[in-house]
Batch of 2 targets.
Target 1
Amino acid sequence: MTVQCPYCGADSQVVDSRATTEGVRRRRLCNGCKRRFTTYERVGAPSLKVIKRSDKNEPFDSDKLQRALARVCRNRPTVTAEAIRRIVRDIEAHLLDSGAKYVRSGQIVTLALERLIEIDKLSYERLATDYIDEDGQLRTDHKNQVDEKSDQLDLFQADD
Ligand SMILES: [Zn+2]
């Protein structure tokens, strides 16, 4: 499992692990800025599942969300890789804090839209165009109308 540095977003490596009654405490060293930080992995940490438009579900995958947003924000110099990482971390924290076990992919899109509009209107529109219908309603269930374009934009499409 790669953990991104909270200061600069680069990958980190584990320098020390210690089991505690709460779970596992790890000291990590950032491969980018070389700062150290500590993570705690709780035993039985809440797992979050995403219900996709097809009604199938899969574990929440922040890397996948990051790749999807990078596609939406392609060729937009105002949206840096770091800005995307921040959005993903923010959404993940928001979802975990909510305590929900299941989240619809449409909710994740909504959270992403709320954050994108503050950074880049065009990226916001790219994502919104695919997910919001003429009445301003989020299209979370248009599996009968999924075309190639929206399939590419599906944040949680299957990899296969
Ligand atoms: Zn760093």
Note: Residues 81-98 form the longest helix (18 residues).
Target 2
Amino acid sequence: MLLENLTWEEARDLAKEDPVVIVPLGSTEQHGPHLPLKVDIASADYIARAVGERTNALVTPPLNFGFSELWHKYPGTISFTADTFKSALLDICNSLIRGGFKKIFLINGHNPNLIVMQTAAYEIIDMFEDEDISVAASTYIFMAADKCNAIGENFKDGTHANEMETSIMLHLFKDDVRWDKALEVGENYRLRKAISFDAGAMILNKWPDSATYNGVYGDPSIASPEKGELYLEALIEDISQFVYDFKDGKYDPIGKDGRPKDR
Ligand SMILES: [Zn+2]
């Protein structure tokens, strides 16, 4: 169900059924020479809508911009600062909660957003501590990790404009993929990183720019639409299961009696 198609009266009545509300998040940012700027939000929005259809969760319109400071030197990238992004998340959650909704699932296609999403979730729970609100915040690539790793190179070399994202785009928006450029990137492939987590510490020393770095992690030339379909199936299946479990409170760390749950 899409929130945008409801009337306010229907939204009011639906809130009483305590549905999970999915908010698609992502970015408008560079994805190498071969993919359009929409990858993160278009994929998150697609997955959110498919999961919403399968589980009867309510899906809000997507927020097309995120925390994309890492790629700010690449033309076309539109980045919120962390403060603006957090404010947008607080306003979205606050509006939903004022409308009577209690279970909010922020699903994200751009992993750096997650730092800010978690901060916003802390603040929301702080603001509404006595009102039985639950917030889930995740980047979708981590929600079906085992299945995705069995399909292809989900995590190898990072997940930006890589084989996985390129496969998903080939499946969803074939005409938007510049395949000749993907092959070119593949030919010149060597592992490059704009940010490092190699030693267990985040290391950032300079902003990457388009003169020195094509903005791709991994080798997109091994992508295929068939793999894209398999990735999406795995993600939609596991994330749908998560939505059922989230609605049931399966993962709530604190029980209804206010005490931490035993596992
Ligand atoms: Zn991406």
Note: The first strand starts at residue 20 and ends at 25.
